[in-house]
Design the sequence.
């Protein structure tokens, strides 16, 4: 895809504090990018820099194939890119005059301005309001005036800051319709939003501005999950599947012939804070010479069609496995449910299978057992049960539960069990594979796991 | 009290019989003050804009200075301009003392701080989004500035009217640098001062009434303009 804009080494401080430091941010032509991220992470500031309304501390810009200094780029941005405020500002004049504002500064002949304003009014369904003072309109109508005031200028890029916030359903639908229409007219856009499902409504591409260190913010590309690329990467990117680990529990024989592996995306949950491990990134802790995450990738790869890693730190390290790496779509370490939701959103399959990154003894029939339980019970979720209690992080979920999960998360819910209780839940019996649930919580666990890995004979029964 | 009533009655007679001397005084007053305010306003409002929308060292000091100058006494301005324009003063060669131009200069100095301070207050209260919206829609900085001024026009008009109110009614500066010469530099306030000192209250009251009437008209105009600018939900 042709590139419209590329910013490298973008740094911005506000009041002496580093707000973000982004290595690279590219905007392709003809694309709608969703930009997500927590409050205060700098989404609005990033958009204002792109609009030439604020200046960064430093940046290298390539705009339409030209390398430009900030000084030169700023004027181009102001002319070619339109920024829309979350609450659009209406000039104190009629709707038609508001829409004509940019055209008048472009010094077009009067008749042409009138014709284009007329078109824009029709485009946004505002013809009946043309003569009204724009300040008297409702929030949704103002948003439409702002959209058509921008559309009439045919900008190269449109920056929409929370365009759907504080709107009722009808107004939202109208706004979504117009934003989609802009794309079909060849106008690229960047949309910031807190709504996790906006990506499915609008976006071609999703970027997440997140904090990966005390003051360093990076822009990651979490949802570039494309099946063909993914498959290719899986071929080349996965570590070799050694016989020595993972599959040594004697269940390798029939790897789920009835399981539609292609319909399952496994989400490896590596997004935790690991407080009991002193904040180390669990997935990257070495066990028998290989990072934990590698053990589980090896175990899961033959069972499912697709793999994703949900991680919030060390994203570059995780990406080395050639798998899509997805940070949490919201919050600061909000727990495994958010990781699950992020995985469900990214997956293109009917089901997601979730497993923690620190369980190296996943049985070869994990997917098959969960799937069978789900089918037999006609359930929406099936979760592993170790004979004594439920192990909710090992689960198979239908991806169409995403809206329910998002609603639960948005209302502040964080507990897996509570959310599971809202749906038909099947329990899959894993009592024959107790090692499945051995994991890493303390440094002592690591030694125990390592011993277990080297002496598989002592593995069963579990202590 | 009876004296005041008699004088008022005489004043009304003067007003409605079109006494040429009285109307010449009124004409000079408005001509001088309008010239002063029209000269000062563009520059003062531009300065107000820069004070409100740019950041530079000493900005706040400058804002406080203009706020302080709001209470600048007219006689002090008169004295200063007199010293500058008098024959021996640094600008004596301009030969402006006791002319209308000298009065205009004095009044410019008097209304300038009002225009800057009130204009700054109005522009400072403008919505930051107005500027950003204008710029992102392709307006050049000066065009965006005019847009912003249009958006806060009621505040700016109020500043201009306040400035005009001050200069049309001031007596100290006009008296000192104009010299109160009939048909040349005698304006309403200086005329009132003179007539009062002569005991001619009727003409003083007539002129005072005209000043009040002018104030009423200006405020009526402002209210009319702001009629559409009420606070809206």
Sequence:
């Amino acid at each position: 895809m042709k590139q419209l804009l590329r910013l490298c080494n973008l740094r911005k401080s506000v009041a002496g504090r580093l707000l973000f430091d982004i290595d690279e941010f590219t905007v392709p032509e003809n694309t709608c990018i969703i930009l997500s991220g927590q409050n205060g992470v700098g989404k609005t500031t990033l958009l204002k820099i792109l609009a030439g309304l604020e200046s960064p501390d430093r940046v290298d810009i390539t705009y339409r194939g030209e390398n430009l200094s900030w000084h030169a780029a700023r004027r181009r941005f102001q002319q070619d890119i339109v920024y829309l405020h979350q609450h659009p500002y209406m000039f104190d004049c009629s709707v038609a005059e508001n829409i004509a504002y940019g055209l008048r500064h472009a010094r077009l002949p009067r008749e042409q301005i009138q014709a284009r304003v007329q078109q824009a009014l029709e485009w946004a369904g505002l013809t009946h309001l043309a003569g009204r003072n724009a300040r008297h309109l409702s929030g949704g109508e103002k948003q439409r005036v702002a959209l058509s005031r921008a559309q009439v200028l045919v900008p190269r890029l449109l920056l929409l800051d929370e365009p759907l916030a504080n709107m009722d359903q009808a107004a939202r639908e109208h706004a979504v319709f117009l934003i989609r229409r802009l794309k079909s007219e060849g106008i690229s856009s960047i949309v910031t939003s807190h709504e996790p499902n906006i990506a499915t409504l609008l976006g071609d591409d999703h970027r997440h501005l997140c904090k990966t260190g005390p003051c360093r913010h990076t822009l990651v590309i979490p949802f570039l999950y494309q099946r063909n690329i993914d498959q290719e990467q899986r071929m080349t990117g996965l570590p070799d599947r050694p016989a020595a680990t993972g599959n040594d529990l004697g269940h390798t024989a029939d790897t789920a012939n009835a399981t539609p592996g292609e319909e399952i995306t496994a989400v490896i949950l590596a997004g935790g804070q690991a407080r009991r491990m002193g904040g180390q990134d669990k997935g990257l802790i070495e066990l028998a010479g290989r990072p934990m995450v590698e053990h589980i990738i090896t175990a899961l790869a033959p069972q499912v069609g697709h793999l994703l890693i949900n991680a919030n730190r060390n994203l570059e390290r995780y990406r080395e496995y050639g798998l899509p790496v997805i940070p949490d779509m919201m919050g600061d370490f909000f727990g495994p449910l958010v990781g699950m939701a992020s995985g469900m959103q990214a997956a293109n399959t009917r089901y997601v299978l979730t497993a923690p990154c620190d369980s190296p003894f996943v049985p070869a029939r994990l997917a098959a057992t969960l799937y069978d339980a789900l089918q037999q019970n006609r359930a929406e979720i099936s979760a592993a049960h170790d004979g004594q209690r439920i192990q909710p992080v090992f689960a198979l979920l239908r991806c169409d539960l995403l809206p329910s999960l998002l609603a639960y998360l948005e209302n502040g819910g964080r507990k897996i069990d509570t959310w599971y209780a809202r749906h038909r839940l099947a329990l899959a019996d894993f009592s024959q594979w107790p090692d499945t649930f051995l994991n890493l919580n303390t440094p002592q666990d690591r030694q125990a796991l390592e011993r277990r890995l080297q002496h598989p004979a002592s593995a069963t029964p579990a202590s | 009290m009876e004296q005041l009533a008699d004088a008022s009655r005489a004043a009304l007679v003067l007003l409605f019989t079109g006494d040429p001397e009285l109307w010449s005084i009124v004409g000079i007053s408005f001509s001088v003050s309008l010239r002063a305010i029209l000269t000062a306003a563009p520059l003062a409002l531009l300065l107000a804009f820069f004070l409100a929308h740019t950041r530079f060292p000493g900005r706040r000091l400058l804002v406080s200075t203009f706020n302080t100058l709001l209470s600048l006494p007219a006689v002090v301005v008169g004295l200063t301009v007199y010293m500058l324009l008098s024959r021996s003063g640094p600008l004596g060669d301009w030969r402006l003392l006791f002319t209308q131009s000298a009065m205009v200069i004095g009044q410019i100095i008097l209304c300038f701080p009002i225009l800057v301070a009130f204009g700054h207050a109005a522009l400072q209260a403008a919505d930051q989004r107005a500027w950003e919206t204008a710029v992102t829609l392709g307006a050049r900085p000066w065009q965006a500035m005019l847009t912003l001024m249009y958006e806060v026009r009621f505040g700016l008009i109020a500043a201009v009217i306040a400035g005009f109110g001050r200069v049309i009614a001031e007596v100290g500066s006009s008296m000192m640098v104009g010299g109160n010469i009939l048909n040349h530099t005698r304006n309403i306030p200086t005329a009132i001062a003179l007539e009062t000192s002569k005991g001619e209250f009727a003409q003083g009251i007539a002129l005072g009434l005209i000043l009040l009437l002018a104030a009423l008209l200006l405020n009526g105009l402002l209210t009319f303009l702001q009629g559409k600018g009420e606070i809206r939900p």
